[in-house]
Amino acid sequence: MTVDESVLASIRTQVGVETSHDLGxxxxxxxxxxxxxxxxxxxxxxxTDVARAHGHADIVAPPNFVTAVSVWDEGxxxxxxxxxxxxxxxxxxxxxxxxxxxxxxEDMEFHAPxxxxxxxxxxxxxxxxxxxxxxxxAFIVVRYRHEFVDQDGRLLLTSTRKVLLx
Length: 166
Fold this sequence. Notes:
alpha+beta, Thiol Ester Dehydrase, Chain A, 5-stranded antiparallel β-sheet, 5 strands
């Protein structure tokens, strides 16, 4: 499939549509595993006593923890994945059949630390989509806003991501 104005028009029907996904409670094990996987050694990510001495209720998640985890459950079976490994459900709002999809960058704004025991909800909305002419042809840039809030509705992190379709 070639991206063009008709594909863009189809994508734009989703601009402003907000979805919400309960990520559940962030556990100390999740935080420690992620910190270890990215090579972090900060004791705030491992040691409850150190975290409490710094005014936190429990160990703290590395800042990009919630944005880095792309699937919060066990994930789909192989037939539920695209050839690039992206879950089919992740692209439900995009007419992405036959289109290459790739990340185009992310900006993050950190509002409050996430500690073990925090329940997190992700609210996502498509902000806009535009057709761009590149040196090798047309592609579409889709921008999403992801807001991560705790069980009290307190904003923890805002992420603006770009997805490229070619």
